[in-house]
Amino acid sequence: MPRLCLILFGSPGSGKGTQAKLLKQSLGIAHISTGDMLRERVASGDEVGRAVASLMQAGELVPDETVNRLVEERIEQPDCENGFILDGYPRTVNQAKLLAELLVLRPIRTVVIHLVVDYNVIIARISGRRQCPTCGSLYGMTSSVPRVPGVCDKDGATLMVRDDDREEVVRERLRAYEQQTAPVLAYFKKSGIPCWDVPAADVAPQVIAKEIEGLVRKERGEAA
To answer: What is the CATH number of domain 3-220?
Structure first.
């Protein structure tokens, strides 16, 4: 059976990180975060890592060709033998085209999942988050609620609002995401790659994960 490439799309605060962790366990496949991958390569200190570090320190984007080459190397690692989840990639149509060319050369079945959450829900969810300035723990208004309002459970520090969680910043992040992601999803759909919209607001993460598992089984021709 072909390996699975599960591409997760979702706006900031849609829960794709949570889904990636759940699906990694239930599907028995690797979770590839391009952000983590780039940081690991920088930490390695090799030639590519040094070049990536220079770009990131200068606030410049890592070229699509470099990111794709690192993804190509990563998916050949032993933990990707059964398949892998791509989280935060591809971000541009050019990356999507390069990825499609890469996958077509291998026996890999690609499924795209778009976690859909209303923007007003996203704004309320993110702007309601609080973080501990000491240990970095995140708390929400409806999940991971601190035992004492405004106080970290672990060290008693006063919780704070992160700069990038302020409402005006969240709105700008969502606008940028929509501009960037909509063309990528359109490209995948036009290419004939299965793309599914999965409602992800006011639904338990485990329920969403089960729905995604069902869609994956359907696309792979497996029994429910």
So the answer is: 3.40.50.300
